[in-house]
Amino acid sequence: MKKSHIFLFIIFMFIISCGNKVTAPSVSDITYYDPNNTIIKTYTYSIKDNKDQSMIAKEGAFKKIAESANAIIYVEESQIDKGITKAGVISFLRKFENYLPREIEIYGEIPDIDGNGKVIFLMADINTNVTTTGLGGYFQPSDLINGKNGEPGEYLHVNLPVSDITLGIMMHELQHLINAYNNLMQGKSMDIWLNEALSESTSLIFSEPIAKEREYIFNTSTYYSFYTWNLVYTDGTPQGTVPVGGYGNILMSYGSSSIFMKWLDSKTGGKQEIYKEIAHSPSAPTSEQRLMNVLSKHGFANDMDTVLLDWIADINNGVVPGLKLSAIDPTDPKFNINGKIPLLPKSLVVYSTADNPQITTSGRLETRPLGKTGLSVVINNSENQGQNLAAAVIADKANVEELTIKKAANLNSSIKYQRFNLQDREYFIDKVITEEDEKNIKKQ
Q1: Can you tell which superkingdom this protein's organism belongs to (predicted)?
Q2: Any idea of the CA torsion for 225, 228, 230, 236, to the nearest 10 degrees?
């Protein structure tokens, strides 16, 4: 080849390379794309209206920002300069790749429906009308089947701007995706309370900020519950449901769920193997039975009610450091509904033993004294039944126990009462958008 031809060939290749939308890799294992010269795709996604808790469909242009061995990051274009930074993307992608083998080992294989071998993270501001806590992320199982723009794949949605919990959100939502593929799509669906418990366990492994947040929520709570995930029950009124715990009550489910999983791990060697056994467990008639089939092999009780009572007793005894229990204040308007404390299925509260002799182990209630504290714990041993069982997020009123609880009469009592009152800050919550949820997504 003549020298002039070689020279022209070099110039031609240079021009092509300048037009290529991929910039030079920022680091050896991650490719970072120039936001001003990259692939743009239009995706429909959902945002949460935190005023009425509804989900709204929205369409946006997403720019391909970064890519690693097992993930692709797309960012909604309005958030490029204010919601995310190059350093931030590289940091959490590198950690994601580092954590991924352990997540797969514990929770199961990730499908590769689209054949690209990567999880696609769609990052955007997915909230409107936020006061304190907005939606941190979500997973939509139908994406594995119908996909985006007719392209099925492994899509996960993460809220922007990024923060110290972004990586934790990614690992949390990834468990939901793995769970959907290995359970829901294989005909052995899991109730949301157990699905969320597994996702909460990811933070105990990969995200100290979220784990610490959950400890704070638990230590602030006076109502211990995650089985009826949304902490609401039907009451036959036009409004349809009654929330227990007031605004932000679902955070109690996250807090209780996280601490329950932490306790299980502490009782089984502290190496997260119990999470793996639950995630890979065979199907059972109910998620409760499925969990008990695993726990009974490790010396736990054979029924969930006793296991939950043991959990609270161990927290009281300091088995899991840094945690505390508080007696429920029966005058707290968040829980006092028409003079009663509604106790949802598998929910527990702590009360003064001497001042409440009427609360006994009978019918659907089981009680247990908590050592020499002067306190006892009571659980409603009912199960969620009927149309709400699949989601296990709403209890039927028929399965709710209404408690009359009195405060300690002795002003010098050592019993300290606490009201559920979280600091005014943002907490992480998420959502698995089911087929039923999709029917209620509003069009913008």
Answers
A1: Bacteria
A2: -130
Helix, strand, coil content of the chain in percent (nearest 5): 35, 20, 45
Write b or e for each residue in 129-148: b if 16 or more Cβ atoms lie within 10 A of its Cβ, otherwise e: eeeebbbbbbbbbebbeebb
| 211: helix, strand or coil | helix
For residue 418, what is the enclosing H or E element?
strand 417-418
User: What is the Cα–Cα distance from 291 to 281, expressed in whole angstroms?
Assistant: 8
Q: Give me the phi and psi of 180, to 5 degrees please.
A: -65, -40
Amino acid present at 35:
P
Buried/exposed code over 276-304 (b: 16+ C-beta within 10 A; e: otherwise): bbbbebeeeebbbebbbebbeeeebeebb
Q: Using N-to-C axis directions, what is the helix angle for 166-182 and 86-107, rounded to 10°?
A: 40
Q: What is the pTM of this model?
A: 0.91
Q: For tokens 């009571």, name the residue.
A: 378
Confidence of residue 360 (pLDDT cuts 50, 70, 90): very high
- C-beta separation of 275 from 260 below 8 A: no
| pLDDT of 268 above 50 | yes
